[in-house]
Design goal:
Blueprint lengths: L3 H4 L2 H29 L5 H23 L7 H21 L5 H7 L3 H12 L6 H22 L11 H28 L2 H30 L4 H28 L1 H7 L3 H11 L7 H19 L9 H22 L1
Length: about 325
């Protein structure tokens, strides 16, 4: 039995609070992307570029001022930057085809992906009752897909809801890879190093992708004040989100990060009701109930997640990088 005392430690409360702050940032990015899509601005890579540049400048400056060597190899961050960019591209692209609420809900697909990846790569074990909570959450996702398939007549469902659903699921899968990788690097290397290198390589890949796929699109865009504000809001929210993610990953891990972001669905519904002149399909509320129930079941058995102790993780990671550095020295 787990007592209430362990539930309300400062670390737990801070993790819960930070998770909701990050959830609000994600909702803000979804709202901004939806607004840009409604104004005919379809340049998802360009939206991500500003965030990566901000990360590279801010955290890169801190990293350079430290004048310390890097703890992880640069090519790890190169791959991470590429995967992160494409994950963001797919999700932002989905706003052109489906609704804001659908995108937020289907992002939940990252949860089972994260659990599978942490179990396989980080050796985190999840017991049966924990998995049941995740299964209930996924059931809510299935309801949304069914709703989009059979609701093509819904005025604000998007031009191609099924295509949008598939794009979000693909993006959520890549986000899961990013989250688990970031948890690994946050505990193995350094948060500032992670964000600086992620920003650097993300900006490089964004520039390449923009020059190939979005150059003509950018030329045709008329940047009025109504378009600049959502774009700037997206960049600011993404920068703050990326800045807070490593902190939560270090405290609670990538699974809890994704569970915390489930509440972004609730925030998106509030925005949709208050800002957009449209109604919310009743099936979304059923999906919300399923996701909420799954989250409760998962949280009730939170202590049943068997993760390596912090000291063991740090020791193992340090040994890994030391061995890699020794090997590189011999080769050189």
């Amino acid at each position: 039995m787990v007592g209430f005392k362990g539930l309300f430690t400062k670390k737990t409360l801070f993790g819960l609070f930070l998770g909701q702050v990050l959830s609000l940032f994600i909702t803000s990015t979804g709202f901004s992307s939806s607004e840009l899509a409604r104004r005919g601005i379809n340049a998802p890579t360009s939206q991500s570029l500003a965030n990566y540049v901000l990360l590279a400048i801010f955290y890169g400056g801190i990293l350079i001022s430290r004048r310390n060597g890097m703890k992880a190899k640069w090519y790890y961050y190169l791959l991470l930057g590429l995967v992160d960019l494409e994950a963001s591209y797919l999700v932002v692209k989905a706003y052109q085809y489906t609704s804001l609420t659908t995108v937020m809900l289907l992002d939940c697909w990252s949860i089972p992906c994260v659990i599978l990846l942490t179990w396989f790569f980080l050796k985190t074990s999840y017991r049966f009752k924990k998995i049941m909570g995740v299964v209930i959450c996924v059931a809510g996702i299935v309801l949304v897909i069914i709703s989009d398939v059979h609701a093509s007549d819904r005025s604000q469902s998007g031009s191609n809801p099924v295509k949008g659903d598939l794009l979000v699921i693909a993006g959520a899968t890549l986000y899961a890879v990013c989250n688990v990788s970031e948890e690994f690097f946050t505990k193995m290397a350094d948060q500032v190093e992670l964000l600086a290198m992620l920003g650097l390589f993300g900006a490089i890949f964004s520039g390449i992708q923009i020059s190939v796929f979005e150059r003509e699109e950018l030329k045709s865009i008329h940047w009025s004040s109504g378009a600049v504000l959502p774009y700037a809001g997206f960049a600011a929210a993404m920068f703050l989100f990326y800045s807070g993610v490593p902190v939560l990953l270090k405290i609670s891990g990538s699974t809890m990060l994704n569970l915390s972001l489930l509440t972004s669905d609730m925030w998106s519904v509030l925005i949709r009701i208050l800002v957009y002149p449209e109604k919310v399909d009743w099936i979304y509320f059923v999906a919300f109930a399923a996701v909420a129930l799954g989250l409760v079941v998962y949280s009730l058995f939170d202590k049943e997640v068997d993760e390596p102790r912090g000291d063991d993780v740090e020791l193992g990671k340090s040994k890994h990088f030391d061995e890699e550095a020794d090997m590189a020295g011999r080769l050189s």
